[in-house]
Amino acid sequence: MSEGEQASAPSTDYILVALDTSPYSAAALAAAAEVAATLNLELRGIYVEDVNLLHLCGLPFGLEIGSFTANPRRLEQARLERDFRLQAAQLRRTMADIAGRQRVSWSFKVVRGGVTQEVLSAGSSAQMVSIGRVGTTPGKRTGSTAQAVVRNTQRPVIVQAQQSLEGPFTVVYMGDPSSDNAMRLAMQLAKQRKTSITVMTLMHARHQVDPYIEEMTENEIEHKVYTMPQIEVMTEILYQIGEGAIILPVSVATWLDKIMVTVIVTP
Amino acid sequence: MSSIKPLPPEVLRRRCDPGEFTFETTADLDGVTTIIGQDRPTSAIRFGVKMRRQGYNIYALGPTGLGKHTLVRRIIEERAAQEPPPSDWCYVNNFDQPYRPRILRLPAGRGRQLKRDMERLVEDMQTALSAAFESEEYQSRRRAIESEFQERQQASLMELQDQARQRNLTLLRTPSGLAFAPLKGEEVLPPDEYEKLPEEDQKRIQADVEVMQEELQKVISKAPRWERELRNQLRGLNQEIASVVLNDLINELASSYAGMDDVLAYLQEVLQDVQEHLGDFMVAGEKQRQSSDGDNPMAFADTVSPLRRYQVNLLVDSAEIEGAPVVYESNPTYTNLNGRVEQMAQMGALVTDFTLIKPGSLHRANGGYLILDALKVLSNAYSWEGLKRALEFGEVRIESVLQMLSLTSTISLEPEPMPLDIKVVLLGDRLLYYLLSQYDPDFNELFKVAADFADEVERTPETHQAYARMLASIAHKESLRPLDRYAVGAVIDHAARLVSDSERLTAQIQAIVDLLQEANYWAAESSSELITVEHVRQAIDAQVFRLDRVAQLLQSEILRKTVHIDTTGEMIGQINGLSVLQLGNYSFGQPSRITATVRMGRGDVVNIEREVNMSGPIHSKGVLILASFLNARYAVNEPLALSASLVFEQSYGGVEGDSASSTELYVLLSAIGRIPIKQSLAVTGSVDQHGRVQAIGGVNEKIEGFFDLCKARGLTGDQGVLIPQSNVKNLMLRSDVVDAVKAGQFAIYPISHVDEGIEVLTGMPAGVLDKQGKYPKGTVNRAVADRLAQMAKKRRTLESKSRGQKSDAPESKEETPKLE
Question: B132-150 pLDDT, tens per residue?
Fold first, then answer.
């Protein structure tokens, strides 16, 4: 066990980060470590040895096509398991390094199973889940695991783009309970990180924003509120945003796929 | 008594009369640098300097100390001041062939400006390009291109994913690639369940997977082409954005170099190269930020910025030069002349580029004049070859000696050669000039102007005045005390003595400078404001004292009678000769005892020195001449029946020169005629076949050498020296000798024929042939002739006796005696 690494304890004061070797995952880890430091949470990493790949090894046509060379190679279980071990060891080192720099306590766990199920299971009691935007599903802007976790978790999920998690925060307020969660999380993060908030809402929900405006004013959080005439205008603008992070209520989580920056989805 | 009178004291040393001078001290003169008596080299140098044709370089020849450098420099500087300043020369990167840097020629002062302008241009480009690449327009266009690429990739994979779904397959990412797998619900079909499927289903699944794998391979193999397209599109975008910025910057710069086609072409090349290497500007900007943050762990490893290639290496900066350059290279090594390419260590290896090209003196003197010492050029390896090549081809090519000899093949630079327009002046001695002229065929082609410096100048009232001005200029230049006019006279007298000629003065300025500096020292020692005669004398005496240890040693050996030299009395067959020994720069006279013996023989004169190879060829020639004289005078009617031997007694080092040939003749006559010679006299002078006495060298030293010996033993009033009449003009004797002559204690006899000399030496008339062809009784010649006749008679008697005893013997083939 490295310095700062904790034996996993039944606590809910932690943020779970789902790890693989993609650059998005590294960004998710960095963002999770920052949030953990900001909100004083423990950082827990999980690496899932994908059982689907192990199944594929047992099939007679289990070939992998090289992602650069396009050459077919036989997928062998022994080699796959060795690759899993190497990746896990590398991720553990990366985690120790990043957590050490943020001075947060951390733990790292390797499990074998379906990736989505394992992440959901491990994140069920977490304060927050952080996941890379694209993981192992090829060809998608948002990976299947990220989408499934967003859909199914009861916790806020950071879906990390390649850049680090930083302000300003743009909150989408639709008037439902998950929008309230989004507003509260935005204010919490903005206050800690001393950054500004932009609230985007629709006509019908505008009046519900007022209490939050008062609260933001009280807390000296710089803020702007934009009321959109139509939902299409709102999405058009959201898809053009190139900096900061967007906090979405889960009710509009489907927009996730076309947003370029990091997104936090609140349940 | 002899009719030859000793020389009067006034001809023994021609003194410069201080009354000739109108000044009191040299401080009254203007002190302008004056060089006298060098009209020939002055005219040659002026011609060479103005002659702007290839090969008309100048060789100033003459021994050191004549003021060659001063004169050459003065004439050249006068000329150079009227000429236009040279061009500036810069080396810049050659973007097509970086190993062959380009040379640019700019008007004086513009090179410095170009260097500054290029530094500023690079800074401006960095700033402007950073701003351009951070602009909203660029960023959004870049994002659009990148997302188009990503979308294209994603769309292909999504399409595959959809196709796979239709076949109930899924696309998975493995640690190093992609794979298709059959699905059961949302999970991959486990192997054991697959095994349970009917064979038909298994085959179908396998076939589907294989089809999809082929499709996937097609998609993946397209990726490199898409990436290439992406790169091309990004490059196109970068260049479009950059060219807006760069065109503006370069055009603005180009406007200030209008008419300089080379510079304008270079700026266009810079523009093109910057567009091709935009990445370097971004990397350089990043490094700059890192190093200013102090957070660049690799800073030590990689310190050479790629932007270095836009620098300008200002090789020759003529901004502050007025007129043409005049350069004296005191250390003309190959690289100091031709320039060099330096190297620097980078990551443990030596690397170089055009910024490390350093100029040589040929570069610095281009458009003007380069002065070099010939001996130094020749004694530095390859300097002479390099200089000749530069002059021959009219260009300076910078290459290392190893490159020149083809001994190295490591990567180095071959900078474009610099066109050369230069006048080289070599300073050297005469021997070197004649050797080069004889043995180096290129030399006469390249150094067509010889400036031959005179060693001495005529001594006239005018040159006295000029010499005084020169002394004033030396005193001024060397910050010495002024000389009073008597001291000036003394220095001029010494200048005549240095060339052993009362009618000439030395042109060896350096010897005079040395004398003045030493006299100045003695003036300082005696707290005098002026250099006076006394100080000049002290300086001369001190110079002699420092050097005359060997002379004193030899004299003391004579005084101790280790070496026998008689200075009183008379002796048959013995005479005092005079020789000059030179040790370094100091020469002194030395008496030598020459003896002769005669015996009956066949007319040969044996030169004992020659028998033992201690006689030089000129000395041997002198002995043969005097033998010839004897034959001509005394053996016209019958052969000489004597053998004579001549020897330099107690001589252990060899004899050279013919200055003792008259002496040897006198001693021979004494030996033959049994006439005693006065040992109080010493003799010098060569003789011809008719008995005329001819001039010799070192007359002053010879006289002084014998005088010093006589003086040490006590002057008797009979002592003196016989010198050739033709050497009288060379007399510049020491004052003490002149004083002794004046007091009648010593005498110098000018001799023009041996008959005069023998009279002085023997006190007996030489004798002239009468009408009967006989010499009068009581003369030297009669005594000699009688003795020879006597010996001949005796020999004939002996020979006839011998023939009587050996009547059967064959007749000797050596009947007629002959001289060697």
Answer: 888 888 888 888 888 888 7
Q: What is the mean pLDDT of residues B433-458?
A: 93
Question: Which member of B143, B176, B181 has the closest CB to residue A55?
Answer: B181
Q: Would you call B179 an interface residue with chain A, using a CB distance cutoff of 8 Å? A: yes
Considering B87, B659, B662, B686, which one is annotated as catalytic?
A: B659
Report yes or no on A6 lying in a domain: no
For chain B, the average pLDDT equals 88
A57 to chain B: closest CA residue: B191
| Identified catalytic residue from B68, B115, B423, B702 | B702
pLDDT of residue B609: 83
Best CA proximity match to B315, nearest among B83, B101, B84, B77: B101
Q: Residue A241: its chain B contacts at CB < 8 A? A: none
Residue B815: band (very low, low, confident or very high) from pLDDT cuts 50, 70, 90: very low
Distance, in angstroms, between A20 CA and closest chain B CA?
Answer: 10
Give residue B2's pLDDT.
Answer: 62
pLDDT confidence of residue B812: 42
User: Is residue B399 pLDDT above 90, yes or no?
Assistant: no
Phi first, then psi: what are they for B256, rounded to 5°? -85, 0
At residue A26, the pLDDT reads: 82
CATH homologous superfamily of B38-86+321-453: P-loop containing nucleotide triphosphate hydrolases (3.40.50.300)
The ipTM is: 0.80
With b meaning 16 or more CB within 10 Å and e meaning fewer, what string describes B768-807? eeeeeeebeeebbbbbbbbbbeebbeebeeeeeeeeeeee
Is B659 a known active-site residue? yes
Nearest to B187 among A58, A70, A114 (CB): A114
B816 touching chain A per CB within 8 A: no
Chain A residue numbers touching B155 (CB-CB < 8 A): 139
Q: Do B182 and A84 touch (CB under 8 A)?
A: no
Which of the listed CATH numbers 1.10.579.10, 1.10.8.60, 2.30.29.30, 1.10.486.10 matches domain B13-35+457-545?
1.10.8.60
Question: What distance in Å separates the CA atoms of residue B459 and residue B473, rounded to the nearest whole number?
Answer: 19
Q: Are B121 and B310 in contact (CB under 8 A)?
A: yes
The yes-or-no answer on residue B361 being catalytic is: no
Put simply, the answer to whether B175 touches A21 (Cβ < 8 Å) is yes
Chain A environment of B138 (Cβ under 8 Å): none
Question: Which strands sit side by side in the sheet containing B312-316, from one edge to the other?
Answer: B102-106, B88-92, B312-316
The CATH number for B553-770, chosen from 3.20.20.80, 3.40.50.20, 3.30.230.10, 1.10.150.130, is 3.30.230.10
Residues contacting B720, CB < 8 A, separation 6+: B6, B680, B681, B682, B746, B747, B748, B749
Question: Which of A204-218, B33-47, B79-93, B546-560 is predicted with the least confidence, judged by mean pLDDT?
Answer: B33-47
Among candidates A55, A135, A138 on the partner chain, residue whose Cβ is nearest the Cβ of B171: A138
Task: Compute CA B62 distance to the chain's CA centroid, rounded to the nearest angstrom.
Answer: 13
Residue B63: predicted pLDDT: 87
Pairing of strands B312-316, B187-188: unpaired
Q: What is the pLDDT of residue B807?
A: 56
Among candidates A57, A62, A138 on the partner chain, residue whose Cβ is nearest the Cβ of B173: A138
Structural domain tally of chain A? Answer: 2
Please tell me the predicted confidence (pLDDT) of residue B368: 94
pLDDT at A211 over 80: yes
Q: What is the mean pLDDT of residues A164-184?
A: 87
**What are the DSSP calls for B168-227, one per residue?**
TEEEEEETTEEEEEEEETTEEPPHHHHHHS-HHHHHHHHHHHHHHHHHHHHHHHHHHHHH
The answer to whether residue B189 neighbours chain A at the CB level (below 8 Å) is: yes
- CA-nearest residue of chain A to B225? A68
Q: Calculate helix-pair angle for B617-634, B780-805, nearest 10 degrees.
A: 90
> CATH number for the domain including A63?
3.40.50.620
